[in-house]
Design a protein that fits this description.
The protein is α/β, with parallel strands linked by helices and 230 residues long. The chain has helices at residues 19-26, 30-33, 48-54, 70-88, 102-119, 159-172, 191-198; strands at residues 37-41, 58-62, 126-127, 141-147, 173-180, 205-211, 222-228. It has a 7-stranded mixed beta sheet, with helices on both faces. It starts with 18 loop residues before the first helix and ends with a strand.
Amino acid sequence: MRSKRGLQLDRVVLLGRAFKEYRRYFLLEPDNLVGKSVLDVAGGVSSFCAEANMLGIKVTSFDPIYSLTPEKIMERSEPDLEAVYRAIGNVPTYRWSYYKNPERMRELRKRASTIFLSDYTTPERYVAGELPRLSFADGQFDLTLVSYFLFAYQDRLSYEFHRDSILEIMRVTRGEARVYPTVTFEAQPSEYASMLRSDPALQRFEFTEIKTDFVFLVNSNSFLRVRRGA
């Protein structure tokens, strides 16, 4: 589970993240999103979709696990949370100003996954599938969010995967996409971010790193905003 500095993950883990966390990750203004269509890519067992819909924000969550039953999802997510909880307190690439300690982090993650599971009975909000393909219409969403998937798993996902995923995300997004964080689990800036900016296949897009005030993983206080160029 651990490498020299960061968490060493052998696959994408299922950790429940809450609306408040997404709001900080992406500098979201909920009042401005009411009535808008938002796609949460790699949403996993996060409660963002459930909580946002209660506020009148039309969120659809997309993840491979949504082909599974609630019971099967719990069989995966609960061990993932326990494994991260046991390891993360000894990893130097994390700062605890928000979560205070691993116990509090586990409590918040568990609460988020519980809210997710209660909302998972609303199937139209949870669409199964995998990047770099999205089963949505062109320009279907005002905003697309990706948290702790692209860039974070740079060691497991190729540059070509990232490029093709951005192209597909922008196909279904009429507004902008935001990817958080821009660093790997080693707390190092992803080399793919600069590669995307210079890729001829992506020249019609503008990439801007936006600073935030939220840090858990060291150096994770920014997201990458992707827009169509003028």
